[in-house]
Amino acid sequence: MIVAFFESVKYSGHMVAISFLRIFLGYYYLQDAIVKFKGDFLVRPRVAEMISEYLPASHAPEWYKWILSTYMVSHWQGLAFIFLGIQLSIAISYIIGYVVRPTALLAGLFTLQMLYLSNPASHDLLKILLAVHIVFAWLGAGRCLGFDYYFFKRVRGFWW
Question: Are the C-beta atoms of residues 55 and 65 closer than 8 Å to each other?
Answer without folding.
Answer: yes
